[in-house]
Amino acid sequence: MSKPILRAPLDNVPGATQAHRSDLPVGERRPANEEMARVLRTKPFRVALEPSSGTIAYWKHEPVHDIVKPMVDHVIMTYPTGVQRLERRTGRSVAIGTARPGVVTLIPAGSTSRWDIHRPMHVLQLYLPQATLSRVADEAYVAAPGDLLERTVYSDPVTSRLLMSAVDVLEGHATLEALFRQQLMDLLATRLLAAHAGSSITVRPALGGLSPNVLRRAIERLRSDNDADVSLGALASEAGLSRYHFCRAFKESTGLSPHAWLRQRRLEQAMEMLRDTDASVVAVAEVLGYGSQTAFAAAFKRFTGETPTNWRRSMR
What we know:
Layout: E1 5-6, E2 16-17, H1 32-40, E3 46-50, E4 54-61, E5 64-68, E6 74-78, E7 84-90, E8 93-99, E9 103-107, E10 113-117, E11 121-128, H2 130-139, E12 150-155, H3 157-168, H4 174-195, H5 212-223, H6 232-239, H7 243-254, H8 258-276, H9 281-287, H10 293-304, H11 308-315
Antiparallel strand pairs: 1-8, 2-12, 3-4, 4-11, 5-10, 6-9, 6-11, 7-8, 7-10, 9-12
InterPro entries: AraC_XylS_family_regulators, Homeodomain-like_sf, HTH_AraC, HTH_AraC-typ_CS
Protein name: AraC family transcriptional regulator
Region (Disordered): 1-31
């Protein structure tokens, strides 16, 4: 079963409990990564940091029997593999459920609860600052967000897939990964506002794409060799739009997100070099900014269905 058993008076939102808020001032709450390291008694297996928006950490941990103390950020988690029973005690309420792929758990900033997890577990966590949530709400022209709801192994395949994509799409290319994380944080914040905020919020879809001149400038920036120029903030600023509206307008105009467009562009460059030059696969990977030949080969095969070497051989 993925829906938790709730054993306490609850609010009128299905699958949610009222978070037990601490009176601890924000300045005295612990960063989420430090508190999770204390509770899980280990270090994350992988970390993807996006300083302006949030952090994603992948943990493999042993059984847990501890109280999670108030944290400065919201914590959203999903479970990549396996099936695991867990218990969460928040104030007078108890939630007992099964962690599995496709469900999410939310710990709102400033809340505290007791956790009992009886076996080793894999978990992927997002640490989302309230500032990111408020910025996305403002850019999407929705009312200021209320508190996030406390969720315990709540069925939400959309949020789970978005969070899991942080692991699936890591490509060994610093620029692509940074741009992807920037987009992902905004997408996750938008999803949380729509599905897990304390008040009903409707995020209005973007209407229309970029003007021809703005689109041309954005593409010129993405084509440039200056990686510092292709952050989502820089692209949106030059277009005179918020990050939220730029991403949606760019996709409306091109059919691809900025990250997907840049990834396709880099791999098309790789195909040209493999077909038209004698540069080694290692050299092509290095010129295009991949951290290793292995990372480049994996990205190339996902795009073409063939390894770089086999693709080059078929073109000659």
